[in-house]
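Section 3.1: Structural characterization of target chains.
Under the original work plan, the team committed to producing a structural model for every single-chain target entering the pipeline before any wet-lab resources were allocated. The record below documents one such target. The sequence was received from the expression subgroup and is listed exactly as submitted; it comprises 199 residues.
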Amino acid sequence: MREVLTAAKEEGFLTGQRLDHGRVENLDLTELTFQKSTFCKCVFTGCNFCAAAFYDCVFTGCAFQDCRFQGSFWKKSELTGSKGDGGDFRRSRFKECTIRDTRLRYINFTNSVWERDEIEETDFTESAFQESRFAKMQLKKVDFTGVDFFKAELKGVDLSGCILDKIILSETCRELRGAKIHSSQAAVVAAILGIEVLA
């Protein structure tokens, strides 16, 4: 896989490829454009994807270890059964993407933008979404435990099917203004506001 990606870097793009069970380490893939390519059970370690773009790409059963994706752009791409704990996705943008059964814990998504994405059964435990924007999202069984949403825009987002335990908000919880939550989640907000809810 290294040879294919290195050659793609020289051209600036990778199109219509399928790569299976590949492993690469410390590869510089900055500003590379990926189009209609599929990655199955591939492992990326210490790779630099800063400012890379992913159009109609599929990642299945892949692992990203200590990889950087600052300023990356994702459109109509899919992550399934993958993991990328501890990655850096600051200022990244996800548009019309699908993420399912994936582990994205302890990741920095600060200043990221999410539009019309579908996320299901995915773990974002203790990730940072500070000052991020969300619009027209479909969320189902998403774990946001301990996530930092400080100054994020969640207006119109349905969070009722998500885990919101120990999330970090501003003192006024203005991040949740206009968002939808389940009545059972109200205690989380009340605790942040210093309100004691009696059973």
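The first strand starts at residue 13 and ends at 15.
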